[in-house]
Structure to design on (518 residues):
């Protein structure tokens, strides 16, 4: 196992803007304020994106880890 | 792990209006009156939305956590 | 955790008419006479609905919890 | 929990004709001669249905519980 | 529980020709020479079928139980 | 349980060319040099196939067992 | 079990460029800097590919193992 672990990305992204990919292709962009071991994630000031375009603002949103495909610091 | 946890969003949303995203793309909007660790959720005064439009009122509805993708305070 | 629990909806709906949403979009409407912790559900006098229209009567039907997405008292 | 349990439907349907719904929409109709706790089911004199029409006879068939969505006495 | 069990079909089909349905709709036909509790199955002299037509011969093939939907003696 | 076991196919295919079917329909062909109990598989000199046509060479590839549907010695 | 194990590919690819296939067909290419037993993977200098074409640069990205289908050293 490598010394760096995947969850380090989550920890270092706390309070920063991230893009979250979801199963089915939708994406959310917002400030990550909480996560847990299941990759359940809370974003604030969040927007839902479809094909890279902002579809709507959603404010605070809890994303269920089971539906998350990727997490990328913006 | 951060001090704020994803389930805090659920707890703080009790008795408030939320929007729930479901696998397949449907959404429900209503007052969240119950949830559990599986993210099974009960809404009252709920409406089912398709493409952001109200499809129908459903009154009380129990959403199975396995099908939930996101939860957002309205 | 809130005092009201999601399964309360199931218990209070026993012997009443409910609408059950299934993965893939089909729905069943009938009198709920049994359920278990997996959300396996038995309806009697049941009808299968497609796009809100009655497709056919199915009498008694056991719905596998894994395929259930929502349960709503009718 | 209610006194009647979902698996009662399976037990009372033994040696009777049932219709089984499968993920993806296919259905099988036949005489149920065996089942287990995973809802693996064996039908005899079975037919595969597509859109309610008989597609072909399949004789004996073991249906994997993971793919079963509903079971209804015919 | 009934006296006959679903896995009896597997055992009695050993060294006989079976048709296996897979998630997504493909099918394989061949002589079943091995299986396990996960319904992983090995066929010999196997053919892959699409819409009931032979698509190609595949000789020996190990089918992963997770993708199997039904098993029927041919 | 039969004396022959599904994993025998994996073991006897080590260092031989196999075709691997993946969920969604893609296939890989290459020399199998490693596998584990989850059916995670490593191919070398591998090619990705779409509709039976070589789409591209991929050299070494680790296939995640969860996405594997079948394994066939070429 | 063979002496070579699938995770050897991950370990030997650390700090090298890899292509990751995802459920649904998207791919990511980048330098793998971390992974864990769930095949959660972190890429740096990553690009998202669609049909083999670079769709966009994503910098650092954490890919959830559950959505990974294959990993190939580039």
């Amino acid at each position: 196992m490598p010394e760096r672990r995947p969850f380090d990305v989550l920890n270092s992204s706390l309070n920063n803007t991230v893009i979250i990919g979801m199963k089915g292709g939708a994406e959310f962009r917002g400030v990550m304020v909480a996560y847990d071991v299941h990759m359940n994630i809370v974003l604030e000031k969040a927007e839902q994106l479809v094909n890279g375009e902002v579809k709507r603002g959603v404010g605070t949103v809890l994303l269920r880890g089971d539906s998350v495909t990727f997490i990328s610091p913006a």
User: Anything to note?
Assistant: The mean pLDDT of chain G is 94. The domain at 6-73 of chain G is CATH 2.30.30.100 (SH3 type barrels.).
